[in-house]
Structure formats: C-alpha cells, structure tokens
Design a protein that fits this description.
- Helices cover 62% and strands 8% of the residues.
- The protein has a four-stranded mixed β-sheet, covered by helices on one side.
- With 211 residues, it is of the alpha+beta class.
- The termini are far apart.
- The protein folds into two domains: 53 residues, no CATH class; 156 residues.
- Helix 2 runs parallel beside helix 5 and helix 4 packs across helix 5.
C-alpha cells in the first residue's frame, strides 16, 4: 500500500515496481515528472531515481542513528528518576526492590527491541527477495543480449549499472542490514543485563530459602 510520502517507481525493461520514500526536498521534482495511475498514486520511471536525492554512506549512517534515537531506548539506567548510567559490577549491592525494578526495565526494553528487530528483519527479507528477483530478471535480459558469453560477476555489475531500481533496492538493503546490526547489538546488551539481574535474584531467593 502506497503511503503519503511514497511514489511508485516503474522499471520499463523488467516491469518491476518499487515503492520509493520521497525526501521532502524532492517533492517538487516528483510532482513535475511523475504520472498518476488510476488510483491517484504518483508513478515515476526508473531512470528518474538518478535525479532524486543522492545516496551516500554518510547519509546511511546518519539515517540509522536517527532511527535508533527515535526508538527512545536509553543506555543502561538505574531504576530511579536520576536516569544515571548503571554499572552492572555493583549489582550485588542493590536492594531487592532495586533488582525487581531492573528486571522490569531491562525486560521491557528487551521485549520492545525484539519486536523492533522482527519488523526490521521482515523488511530485510522483503528487500532481499525483491533484489534477488530483480537481479535474476536483469541477468536473463542481459544474457539474451550477449548470447550468454559474459560471466555472472560481469552480469551482476552491469545489472546494477543499468538498473537504477535494482541499485536503489540494494542500497535500501544495505541500510536495513546496518539498522538490524545496530538494534541487535542494543537488544543483546539488554538481554545480558536482564539475565545477569535474574541470576542475582535467583541466588538471593535460593539463599533465603536455605536459611
């Protein structure tokens, strides 16, 4: 389903369709160059992507940082209003009440991050499937043109060069994979913290039962 900030990119050669998230500064260009389909969606031909905002690694990294910040997941915090960084090395000095608060905080963020990871992984799977399908179609088209005399590596390079849509899909996939790695790292840190606090609670519970 096309959102308000998206246009449909149509590649004439392969017939692949793609939903492109338009940057605000590109909307004037889109409105001038795009056609409208029967549902009122903006439709651009694939070569038009080259005229949109350019993709670069710095923008990718900044975009990933922004997405992580919008999740509002802090670094390790104490279960208090101070929001100070918590040192797991001092966990044995915490009261039972503080430990229960930690379990709630760390468990909550861990569950939230796992949900976010599932969404990111789903998007990554869709992008991977779209990329592989588009690449296979371009391989076929290019191999038909040259009688199958080129290697797979050369065909791959030509595919990404000749297909703006395929290149854009690959770039989106790189961004999503980077975001997945970042979020997974944060999730793993909260998982370790949660498991550490859980072990301390268990030790104290067992020790109390033996007294």
């Amino acid at each position: 389903m096309v959102q308000n900030n998206q246009v449909i990119i149509k590649e004439k050669e392969s017939g692949i369709l793609w939903w492109y998230d338009v940057d605000p500064e590109d909307w004037d260009f889109v409105q001038k160059r795009a056609e409208r389909d029967e549902k009122g969606n903006y439709v651009l031909s694939a070569p038009a992507i080259a005229s949109l905002k350019r993709w670069d690694i710095e923008r990718v990294v900044e975009g990933i940082d922004d997405k992580v910040k919008k999740m509002n997941v802090p670094n390790f915090i104490q279960p208090s209003d101070s929001k100070e960084t918590f040192d797991l090395a001092s966990i044995f000095d915490c009261s039972n009440e503080d430990l229960q608060k930690m379990l709630s905080i760390y468990g909550g963020y861990k569950a939230y991050l796992e949900t976010q990871l599932s969404h990111i992984e789903a998007r990554r799977s869709i992008l991977e499937a779209s990329f592989e399908e588009g690449l296979a179609k371009m391989f076929y088209i290019l191999s038909q043109e040259n009688g199958g005399r080129k290697t797979k590596e050369i065909l791959r390079g030509e595919s990404l060069t000749k297909s703006p849509l395929l290149k854009k899909t690959k770039q989106d996939l790189i961004e999503v994979e980077g975001l997945f790695i970042r979020v997974k790292g944060i999730r793993d840190a909260y998982r370790v913290a949660f498991e550490t606090v859980s072990r301390v609670v268990t030790l104290r519970t067992n020790a109390k039962g033996e007294m």
